[in-house]
């Protein structure tokens, strides 16, 4: 066990486990949100088979969702690096 900068005892393995679990949770939330958005956009009438138009809609929806999520994350990182904190960047 080591001491972190705030004086509390922290186990590096526990910290890594928590970070991994947090990442898994964020990923699951992203998948759930993406599924909901793309289902509403692409699935007109559920049936036993998906036609090619609906399949292409899902593919495009997922790709655009990932692209836009990545763009937003990159933009937030750039803003935070340039301004120092998220709260300052939101006041632009």
Helix and strand content put the structural class at mainly alpha
Oligomer: single chain
Q: What does the largest sheet look like?
A: 2 strands, antiparallel
The rounded Rg comes to: 20 Å
Distance between the terminal alpha carbons, to the nearest Å?
Answer: 42 Å
Q: How are helices and strands ordered from N to C?
A: EEHHH
Q: How much of the residues is beta strand, in percent?
A: under 5%
Morphology: elongated
**E-strand count:** 2
Separate helix tally: 3
Query: If you average the pLDDT, what whole number results?
Result: 82
Into which percent range does the helicity of residues fall? over 70%
Unreliable spans are none
Which strand order does the major sheet show?
1-2
Structure in a nutshell:
The chain is mainly alpha-helical and 92 residues long. It has helices spanning 12-42, 52-83, 86-90; strands spanning 2-3, 9-10.
Kindly describe this structure:
It is a single chain. Helices cover 74% and strands 4% of the residues. The chain has 92 residues and is mainly alpha-helical. The chain has a two-stranded antiparallel sheet.
Question: Which key terms come to mind for this protein?
Answer:
92 residues; mainly alpha; two-stranded antiparallel sheet; 3 helices; 74% helix; elongated
């Amino acid at each position: 066990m080591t001491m972190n900068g705030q004086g509390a005892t922290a186990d590096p393995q526990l910290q890594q486990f928590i970070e991994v679990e947090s990442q898994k949770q964020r990923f699951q939330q992203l998948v759930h949100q993406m599924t909901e958005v793309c289902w509403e956009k692409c699935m007109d009438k559920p049936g036993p088979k998906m036609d090619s138009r609906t399949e292409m809609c899902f593919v495009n929806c997922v790709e655009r969702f990932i692209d836009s999520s990545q763009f937003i994350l990159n933009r937030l990182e750039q803003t935070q690096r340039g301004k120092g904190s998220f709260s300052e960047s939101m006041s632009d």
